[in-house]
Specification:
The chain has 92 residues and is mainly alpha-helical. The protein has four helices and no strands.
C-alpha cells in the first residue's frame, strides 16, 4: 500500500499547469509518482472552483448535509440537558 502524502497548493497548481500546457497525463503521473485519481481531482477542482480546498469544492447538498448534522447534534445535546433537568426537578 502506498504511503499517504500531502501536497502543497503550489505543487497541485503546477501539476494542473503542466497538464493544461499539453503534457500527457500519464507522463505527469509517472514522473511525479502520483495517483491518477489525485491528478484528476486537482484538474477538476482547478477547473470548477479554482481552489484545491475541500470546502470550496463542496456541492450545495454537501454543505446542507454538514449544516443539518451540526443542527442535529445541537438539538440532541439540548434534549439531553432537558432530560437531566427534568430528572433533577422530579427529585425535589
Amino acid at each position: 500500500m502506498r504511503e499517504r502524502r500531502t501536497f502543497t497548493t503550489e505543487f497541485k497548481a503546477q501539476m494542473v499547469k503542466l497538464y493544461e500546457s499539453g503534457k500527457p497525463r500519464k507522463d505527469i503521473i509517472s514522473e511525479y509518482n502520483l495517483t491518477p485519481s489525485a491528478l484528476n481531482k486537482w484538474i477538476k477542482q482547478s477547473q470548477t472552483s479554482g481552489s484545491f480546498k475541500e470546502k470550496d469544492n463542496r456541492s450545495p447538498e454537501e454543505n446542507e448535509l454538514i449544516q443539518l448534522r451540526k443542527e442535529n447534534m445541537r438539538l440532541v445535546m439540548e434534549n439531553d440537558i432537558l432530560k437531566q433537568a427534568a430528572l433533577i426537578l422530579g427529585r425535589k
